[in-house]
Amino acid sequence: MGRGTIVVTALRYWREWRGRKLCRHWVCPKCQQPFGDKAELKQWERRQDIGIKSALFSGPVMRCAHCAEDYWFTWAGHLLDPGMRSAFQVVASKWTWDA
Ligand SMILES: [Zn+2]
């Protein structure tokens, strides 16, 4: 593992840590309101059997309490391209919060 790999890995975990802290403040693309405490959270991960050239490994799935729709985000807070969802699967129905 070169130094570059370590930096990229650290960045990835930092983004995830920050995303978990901040995601309830993100805004629903439809309602334009923060998801807040009522949003239901799940998590997606890249499917093991699919090899794609992408830096995306996991992220949150947020269900808006207002419109009851699921939105797939990256940990950086960007909406995941719906065309990419087939490469990912929802792995956790509920988060366990260790923080
Ligand atoms: Zn909404």
Please give the count of helices: 1
Shape: globular
The computed structural class is: alpha+beta
Strand residues, percent: 15-25%
- Name the helicity range: 10-25%
Largest sheet: 4 strands, antiparallel
Placed side by side, the strands forming the largest sheet appear as 3-2-1-4
Count of DSSP strands: 4
First-residue to last-residue Cα separation = 29 Å
The SSE order reads HEEEE
Q: Give the averaged pLDDT, no decimals.
A: 88
Low-confidence stretches: none
Small-molecule binders = zinc ion
Radius of gyration: 14 Å
Structure, explained:
- With 99 residues, the protein is of the alpha+beta class.
- The protein is built from one helix and four strands.
- The chain has one helix at 3-22, and strands at residues 40-46, 58-63, 70-72, 88-92.
- It has a four-stranded antiparallel sheet with strand order 3-2-1-4, with helices on one face.
- It starts with a helix and ends in a 7-residue tail after the last strand.
- The mean pLDDT is 88.
- It binds zinc ion.
- Residues 28, 30-31, 64, 66-67 line the site of zinc ion.
